[in-house]
User: Fold these one by one.
Assistant:
Number 1:
Amino acid sequence: MENQILAINDDGSIQYQQLTSKYLEGACEVTKKTVFTSGTMCRFLGVPEDEDALAELTQISRTAAKDGVSVIAIDKTTDKVVAVAINKFLQKSQPFFENFRKTFKNPKSLKIIDFITSSDDHCDLFEHCKVDCLMEILFLGTLPEYRKKGIAKKLCELSVDVAQKLYDGVNVKKCVDGKDLTLEPVPKVVYAIFVSFISQRIGKELGFEIAAERSNRRLELMGQVFENPNSETATTTIEYKMLGKN
């Protein structure tokens, strides 16, 4: 069944499920309106005012979604995507962002890629956790009118559940492009780069561990130093949660 429901909120208005082809464009639109518009680094670099940068960055969501493990929240009244956790497998031998670095032209979107990859460089989680495959909660976003309802936390919780099922040998991947998805690769860790104090609180509540931190107030991107002394959150945290046999 394509639209298998993972959860429904207490009042029955929000439905959670894995992302499928039906909702792919809606999910990409949510990342564009949230992660790339209101995200701390995107705002600091002026991404929201740059349509070319937004278009390039949205390609990342569309590509990551092909792994079949993203989770979305849908308003049951409108059947519209209102929040997303775009999830992606990472393997040490297959760097995800290199192709984007080669094809992107906009300097702002390139700086966002540099921010993400340089955060990863602060801690080699493959070595830290002694694993060969991770599932990253790559982009987590909720439309403004649906915030403060616990939706983002639920998306993270369900993302861990999806990863755990894969770890246990159950292929729950959902294709978004008509291609069959095999069980492999299987993640052994779920991780995220939490930029805001809100997402960091979610990580703490769900039992994520902090592997490394970096300053949000002084950054070096593509050889340039950026000062952002008014950042609401002092540091970005690289956090992870080990999966285990049930």
Number 2:
Amino acid sequence: MPKYLIGLCAAVGFTATVALGSAFGQQDAAQKPGQNQPTQNQTTQAPSSGSAPQEAKIAEPEELVNDEGVPLYAVRDGKVDQGTYNGYRRYASSCHVCHGPDGLGSSFAPALTDSLKRMDYWQFTDVVTNGRTNMGATGDRVMPTFGTDPNVMSNLADIYRYLKARSDEKVGRGRPERFKSAS
């Protein structure tokens, strides 16, 4: 299991098993220790939550996380790292039906490019894992739980990378190009 997934599982109270998704906890994601600490991999010295850019220095995919286990993206010459590219692919296969192409929202689901300006990684993980129901003027909005969907949960860090890069306006609309890693 990749290092960032082990960190994710431990940080949100999941029990890592052979099949990710079989023993997920219901811990409050908004109370993770150190989530508002500055990190050395960010392009600014802003907190890791909120609207601060979370672009990583160029590194190998396993290293594209900060000290708290928050996934970071890398963009070089308009191209993205493999994880962010994979996040685009997984978003397109599992999320765009409700949240629209490129995370721009729809008539019944919010624009995730806007949501990630206010939501940190741990809150994002909690909503995807446990779902959410919002009462609105036009009725209920329900985000289903994806905590047992291995296609989503095993790629959650990459989906977050892609959406955060879109939210920070570092990646444009459509399929991003990826740069080749220096391996």
Number 3:
Amino acid sequence: MLKNFWYACEFSTLVTNQPKQIVMLNQRFVLYRNAQGQAIAMNDQCPHRGAALSAGWLENDCIRCPYHGWKFQENGQCIHIPANAANAPVPKKAYVESYPVQEKYGFIWLFYGDLPEAERPPIPPLPEFEDPTLHRFFLDFKVNTHYTRVLENSIDISHLPIVHANSFGAGFGDNPTVDDYTVEDEGWGMSATIVSKSSAKPKGLFKHFARQESADLVSKLTFYLPNITKVESSSKHIKIVNYAVHFPVNDTTTISKRILFRSFFPYAWSDRMFAKYYTKIYAEDSVVSESQYPGTVPYNLSAETHVASDALQVAYRKLRQKYLAMGWGLEPVHSSLPSSNGTIAPLSATALVN
């Protein structure tokens, strides 16, 4: 895990004036909105006895601890301790860490790190969010492995005819070869454009909406540090964009939060149908991702064997390795821990219509 980046920590629609706990980066945070609707983020741990502030309540844009009623401002400073005498000073250590927040692209973003504002990496661009020709909906699901494995799976093109042979990958098995491609610098990330040749017409939902003669697919796959992927897929008549934030809960749990755009069938009532289709695909990926050992992508490039089609994943490993070596890591840089157990947990998915 990396510090000094913006982390999309929750869908905007799920953050209200009721304190909400999220677990990310092996830590607990509390999110809520003040009276002006601005999102606030701070550590979800009272410095007094460690109670979760998210179990407390809001009072004049401050949050009260549910245990002893300590009252904290939006900047994390405690301003009232009910048990203290009226003239007793508030201890200097009565403080909760608060974090810079942005609201963008349907997410609440939290900056975790110690860089000054002018030096912070930007939130990656997502022009599709403002594109009126694209319909969007939100989806999330859990994978029981480290986020690095989930991220790499999202930018891996060569697994389509194998893992997804019974879904959208049908037809690519006759020509599984991945032609050499160029990895492009995207600023805090990399991308590659790849053409997948299919011998079959579209299957599943897409045979009803694509109305095309073949299922040849042009895909631009992009990753951005620390945990974002974007897959832009297009063919003769359709465009699909899959923007994903691979939310690192802890070393063995990832919640993949996605915005799914499509240029066809732009009806909100159909989003559940598409969510069911995508959930099937992600379940296929999860079985493989959760089986990988070690659970974390290895720090050393030579720890696993690479071929030409892995160029984009190798670029990700090199860039991640660079910032780990700079001291931006929140994990031991020379260890790759396996998942806590080898079991596959049921997939959890929730569709949120914007």
